[in-house]
Design goal:
Layout (H helix, E strand, L loop, with lengths): L11 H9 L21 H11 L2 H9 L14 H12 L20 H12 L9 H16 L19 H8 L3 H5 L4 H18 L6 H11 L10 E4 L6 H6 L5 E6 L2 H14 L1 H4 L10 E4 L13 E2 L2 H8 L12 H10 L38 H11 L1
Parallel strand pairs: 1-2, 2-3
Antiparallel strand pairs: 3-4
Helix pairs in contact: 5-7, 6-12
């Protein structure tokens, strides 16, 4: 089942390659006026993804449940309900795969160049505005464009000082295509570089290299098993780079971080690459969340994690669900993930081999490893001397 015009066109890879060869925009119309509604950017995301991967189409397939199977979702036993979803609801086709770039995001990457152009052109009035202020505005602007229901993103963000009109600048210069065509954690590297070394030491934020994240994601899931209903958990999620590879295997993810900025970048990454994390499947919404706070403190602590994701999607889904979806109490569940230890296995005992007189002490002490009657052969000595000479 295909839902996009692009998905019905043959040889979309040729179209994508030709578009990738076009020059990035650097000029814009200064006085352009457009009314941007919440979610205005999502159709562009949908069509580009349909041309490249088909993930948002797969997300739509997951959201559609036949009438004759809807009663299976009303099973009160959560384990039985997951079994019903596994056997009767999920499509037979696996998750469309994305090969995420393993290299470091450099200034030569086209997606990074596009972001640098946008951040530079935001300074419409001259002067100087902190790069982190501009990065956060760009993230808020994108999440407003994607239509995330959190109150932070329900209104177009206020433009920073000296950046009057930057919303229309981004409207003309920002391009989703290079970010999707070569999928990487662009915002993680951008934020790390913008904060600088001193700030990194203060915040403790160091982005995981893409190659490490990809390797760990592949190690956690078996290729021969259907792991779509397993749930991932990342207690220090950052910009979500560790969840990108996992999106090839699972449909549910829980993440926590104390830094609000990187959580916004994580949401943008999820929208671009992981639709079922960004907008949870309605019957799996209680298994996906993003929390702002410290995963290692008690529930009563002022920095205890608070949902910025799940509770707002549950509000959106309450009108289409005839069964009850409850917000999870992650204060009790996340410590289970953090404190979980592998089962202890007794180390096997090996009996020491019986050594004969000729091998006694060999390998323990160089002085004792040779017998008293040992003599180096003359040919061996000449060979060794030749090497040293």
């Amino acid at each position: 089942m295909r839902f996009s015009l692009f998905s019905s066109i043959p040889n979309t890879c040729i179209i994508a390659r030709d578009y990738d060869q076009q020059e990035l925009k650097t000029k814009y119309i200064p006085n352009l006026k457009r009314e941007l509604e919440p979610g205005w950017l999502k159709p562009y995301l949908f069509h580009i993804d349909s041309m490249l991967y088909g993930r948002w189409e797969y997300w739509m397939r997951l959201q559609i449940v036949p009438t004759e199977k809807y009663h299976l979702l009303q099973e009160p036993n959560p384990d039985k309900r997951l079994e019903n979803i596994q056997n009767q609801i999920l499509p037979q086709e696996p998750i469309p795969q994305i090969t995420f770039g393993e290299g470091y995001v450099s200034s030569h990457d086209k997606g990074r160049k596009m972001l640098d152009i946008c951040l530079d052109k935001m300074l419409t009035q001259g002067g100087y505005v902190n790069i982190m202020t501009r990065v956060e505005y760009l993230l808020d602007w994108l999440l407003y464009g994607f239509g995330h229901p959190h109150p932070w993103f329900r209104k177009l963000p206020p433009e920073p000082h000296s950046c009057q009109g930057c919303s229309m600048v981004l409207y003309q210069l920002f391009d989703l295509f290079p970010l999707l065509y070569r999928p990487k954690d662009y915002f993680g590297v951008l934020i790390a570089e913008s904060k600088g070394k001193g700030s990194q030491k203060h915040t403790g934020y160091f982005p995981t290299p893409g190659s490490v994240a990809n390797m760990m994601g592949k190690m956690l899931f078996g290729e021969q098993l259907d792991t779509r209903l397993q749930r991932g958990c990342e207690p220090a999620i950052g910009t979500g780079v560790m969840t990108l590879e996992a999106s090839n295997q699972v449909l549910s993810m829980v993440g926590v971080d104390i830094d609000k900025l990187v959580l916004k970048a994580c949401l943008v990454n999820w929208y671009m690459y992981c639709p079922w994390f960004a907008e949870p499947i309605f019957y799996l919404a209680e298994r996906t969340d993003l929390l702002w706070g410290n995963a290692l403190v008690a529930k009563e602590h002022p920095q205890a994690p608070q949902s910025i994701h799940q509770k707002y999607w549950l509000e959106q889904y309450q009108d289409i669900c005839s069964f009850e979806l409850k917000e999870r109490d992650w204060h009790t569940e996340i410590p289970k993930f953090v404190d979980s230890q592998p089962s202890k296995v007794a180390a096997p005992e090996f009996s020491a081999p019986k050594a004969d007189e000729s091998s006694k002490g060999f390998g323990q002490n160089p002085k004792l490893s040779k017998s008293k009657n040992y003599r180096r052969s003359k040919s061996k000595k000449k060979f060794d001397d030749g090497l040293l000479g």
